[in-house]
Structures are given as structure tokens and as C-alpha cells.
Amino acid sequence: MKATFYILSAWVLSLTLWNCDLINPDEPIPGYIVVQPFQITTNPFTQGSNSARITEVWASSGTDFIGVYSLPATIPVIAEGLQTVVLQAGIKDNGVGALPEIYPFYAPVSVQVDFQPNGTTTFSPVTSYLPETRFAFIEDFEGPEHIFRELRVGAPELAMQRSTESPFEGQASGLISLDSANNLVEIAAWPRFSNLNSNSPFVYLEMNYKSEVAMLVGLVGYVSGGPATGFTVYETGFFAREDWNKIYFNLSQVIFESRFDEYQIVIQAAIPIENGTPVRKTAKVWLDNVKLVHF
User: What is the pTM of this model?
Assistant: First the structure.
């Protein structure tokens, strides 16, 4: 009788353990990809500077989206054996941390990974502009002339100058100087453009900048038969920053919704006024590698 009890108890225990294995099976052990910050290659004659600010990587494998990770990133992946992983460069739209996006003009990077449990593979991805990327203009301020002109009638002609004072790279950058007599500047890229979104909705303005005051970025839009001065629409901008930074302004929506026939890029800088008094006597804004990019 006692032997029968022990046999029955052992059988019940084994059945219980077997059921536990079904309910709580061993979890798969991931392999890992370590992604270092992206490097950009460009043709300096047709695509300008290789300056970039890629802050995230968007990773996928086959039809499976793995996730978005801040760079440098350690990415766990539940897979075994050889897999193709696609890494896409991510930026902050308009410099806003809450708006991470895949930058549509940078080519995806495909890598082969032999995944093993707890194994680690490191990549330093190198990307470039997609071949179909178009540059409406590239202004690097290296030549004797630049494309920006004062927008307001009667304003100083030299609101933006080529300056060697504090270049981001190369020999010069663009410098906007503000003072008590000229405390607001609106400059526009002199060429007018049309059909920027005829092949794709994506239109971005890239630039390097540092600034002692905030700035606004937008469009001057022109319609057939409309005012010769156009309509100015400010869409986004940036705050003051002591060191050089790279920013990507997403102009896709404002261009799509405005439906203007032609556009100019416009930038406004001003010394803030508090209680009727300017907060500072002078201010400077430096710009470099300004690119209007579309497909």
C-alpha cells in the first residue's frame, strides 16, 4: 500500500512539473547587434558636406520591425542563424526629441548577422544619399557670393555676410548680425522653386547652425496673379545654441497644404524684446551647409 502511494505521488509530481514546463517554457535567448553611430559619405561637388546628426537607428529583419534605438545601440534579436537586418538612419524632425523619424533621403544599410544565443555582432554603418535625391540648392558659403537676400524692402543689403570668423568647416560660414538699429532680419534664398513635391511628399531643409537668438524658418509662397511680394509662412525654427548643431527641417506638410505655385525659403532672426526693451544690444547667427532636399 505504501509503495503504491509513493508511485502515485511520483507520477503526480512529474505530471505537475511537465505542466509547469508547458505553462512556463524556457524563454529563447537573444543574440545582440551593437550599432555604432552612422557615417555619411557624400559627393562634395554635387551633394555638399557630409555633416549629419543621426540620433537613432530603425532596425528590421525581413517583414519584422525590431525597433527604434538611440545611438550607439545594443539591440536584442530573437533569432538564430544567418539573417539580413536592415538599419535605417533616424533623425529628430525639426530638432524635436519627441519627433523621431527615418530620414527618407539616406540609404538603408543591410547587414548579414549570424545570430547565436548571447552572441554579439558590432556594426559601424556607412550610408549615403539615395541616388534619386535632388538638391534644389546647396549653400556652403565657400564662394564669394551666396544665395540669401534680405526679404524686406528697404532693409540693409548686407543682412547676411560671408564670414571667416567662426566657420563650421571649410573657410567660411554665413553670418547674420543684429543690433539696435537692425534688430530683426528676414532673409530668403533668392531662387524660386516649384514642383518640389511632384515626385514625393518629402521636402527637407538641412543646415548647420549656431546662434545667440532664436530663429524661424518657413516659406515665401507665390501664386499666379497674386501679390509680387508673396505670402510668408513660418513653420518651425530653433532656439539659441552656443555650439554648432545640425538640424533637419521637415517642410513637407507646409508645402503640400499651402499649394503655392512657387516657393522661396525664408529665415527670420530677431533680438527678443521684453517690457519694451531689447534683451541684448547685439546678436549673431551663423549658418552653414544649407541644403533644400527633395525627390
Answer: 0.88
